[in-house]
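User: Can you predict the 3D structure of 5-formyltetrahydrofolate cyclo-ligase? Sequence below.
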Amino acid sequence: MNSRAALRTLVRTRRQTLSLEEQQQASDRLIQHLSTHPKVNSAQTIALYLANDGELNPTPFIEWCWQHNKRVYLPVLHPFCSGHLLFLLFERNTPMVKNIYGIEEPTLNVTKVCPLAQLDVLCTPLVAFDAAGARLGMGGGFYDRTLTNWQQHHVYPIGIAHDCQQVKKIPVEHWDIPLPEIITPSQRYIFM
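Assistant: Sure. Here are the predicted structure tokens for 5-formyltetrahydrofolate cyclo-ligase:
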């Protein structure tokens, strides 16, 4: 399958057809992997996301983070810099709005923004991945732009996906940023 669009459609369909029970089991296993991860355990600030379109749901892990006094940040579409993300503090009482994609995000409050260099771990959703660590997103390039030169920042990116999202080979473009690690319910893949 050479077309990135066709690959997105195929893998999105796979994850959308997972049952509620399979989704819940995947979330539970994600907590097991992340709660014992050395970088997560030493982290004070963790960027996550709210599941959409069948993505692996990290909400139970967000609860775990709160219980372990870790500050959780969610992506927000940058209001002035199209195609870019900001990360805002997410707490139980954070006011939320839907962005242009229909995804819930914290209401913009500049006092709650965390610069990328102050995040310890950034967990990113993805559509598909391969055994080389290539990540295929939804096509907007938001996380590729965010993770450009991530090694120069303090942040450590981890891709989160269902097992069914692994494919043989992602057709990589020059703007794609490979991840050092991807975690699925059954496995932890380390690439760097």
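Residues 117 and 153 are 5 Å apart (CA to CA). The radius of gyration is 16 Å.
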